Amino acid sequence: MKTMIANAYLLCPANKIEGPGNLVIEDGKIAQVGGPAIEPDEYIDARGLYLAPGLVDLRVKTGEPGAEQKETLATASRAAVAGGVTSLVVMPDTDPVIDDVALVQFIANRGKETAKTRIYPAGALTKGLKGEAMAEIGLMQGSGAVFFTNGDWPICDTSVLRRTMAYAASCGAIVASRADEKSLSGKGVMNSGAFAARKGLSGLPREAEWIGLSRDLLLARATGCTLLVDQVSTARSIDMIKAARADGTKVFVSVAAHHLFFNELDVGDYLTYCKVNPPFRPEVDRQALIEALAAGEIDAVVSAHDPQPPEEKRLPFGEASFGAAGLETVLSALISLVQDDRLSLLEALAPVTCRPADMIDQRQGRLAEGAPADLILFDPGTPWLCEREDLRSRSLNSPFDGRRMTGRVMRTFIGGETVFER
After folding, report:
1. Contacts 24+ apart (CB under 8 A), 244-249
2. Domain membership of residue 295 as a residue range
């Protein structure tokens, strides 16, 4: 069966496509990009909407298995397709932890059974995420784990991290690490500084990120491991990564979409929906992240989707859980930067399409013949009000709640099939 999407404005950062055209889908794959119109079995008039690859999100938490009241793969994928996310990598910090072959296979199979999106498991770097003994990296990689991480918990024992990095390097596996020094960050709840002091809240200092990052970069260089710096949040960290790359270190870097939109002042009067880790930083850091994104120095923008139920957020700020729901707001957060003339549309789409897809060695994330027909039709000019009650995640803890946003996904395709239509 051939489907033609006609009268669309095509966008593809991978192939530098930007302009009006048609696209043909056949057997779940892209059969033709541009070119003359054909006689299809199904005709979809895009009516001038923008047609781009579906988004690839490298950092999504769910509660499945073990905490399904927060989120399941099914409910996460429901929110994802509404936000244009067609492929997502799920973090291993579940209960039980995804630290062996059976659990990697469970997530992959469960995703195929219940989720609308493509689901890719990330494997635990250490058993139980305890930071003590290396997990079965090679076996999990063979079963489909796309990279390995200790989630929100950096490995404090440097010798353990060095061994895991060395083994991952021998397997050609990517290690994703949160840059943090726990002896400094301790029990902090927001960015350390004058604003936190005025609020009477304990701080998460930027120095903790710098010290943790310095160690991780040195070990990646020494072992030959490919490192993914997970959710960088400060200007100095970007400079450190640039220097390491110049020295030959193989390093990728991701940033959470909300760090491009908010700064520490958005915590306001103890808004727990803005309690995330890493925390929102000073405005100077937010601006530096945007500049790095525009310069192509950020490899992936992630949702950092971390759903928390109301009973874990409606608490005093110091007691509330970290985390923000983010699957439905990634695209709009990036389009806000386009509206502010900080990025072009192709620059905004690259770190959520082709770059993360290439990182995990997948063919989606581009408009190219033979690629999976994972696509979105969206209108970058449609305004909307983000209201938590309208979000599709099982948990509704969004820092964007009450914000006026721009850019709306109107239709999402996976394998050529419509999985969402607004």
Report:
1. 244/217, 244/220, 247/221, 248/221, 249/217, 249/220, 249/221
2. 58-359
